[in-house]
């Protein structure tokens, strides 16, 4: 069943950043939706946890150049 993970993302400063992060997340296996809020510096991801876990989400966004923390 899908779960929702929230990430706090540092370093997004324009709308293109939002698109980069959103596209990065949506390409991961098992990700159903990825919503990125530029004002809140936060992403909310619905994903199948057996295919992609929070660590995978964090690593993917870090790898395109942002600083990421899990919102707990
Ligand atoms: Mo905008 Mo984001 O010009 O890394 S794409 S700042």
From TrEMBL:
Subcellular location: Membrane
Record organism: Paraglomus occultum
Domain HMA: 3-69
Superkingdom classification of source: Eukaryota
Segment forming the signal sequence: none
Protein name: 10000_t:CDS:1
Similarity annotation: Belongs to the cation transport ATPase (P-type) (TC 3.A.3) family. Type IB subfamily.
């Amino acid at each position: 069943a899908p779960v929702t993970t929230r990430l706090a993302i540092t370093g997004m400063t324009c709308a293109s950043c939002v698109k980069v992060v959103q596209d990065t997340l949506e390409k991961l296996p098992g990700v159903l939706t990825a919503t990125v809020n530029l004002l809140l510096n936060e992403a909310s991801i619905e994903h199948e946890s057996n295919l992609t876990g929070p660590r995978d989400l964090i690593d993917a966004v870090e790898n395109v150049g942002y600083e990421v923390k899990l919102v707990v």
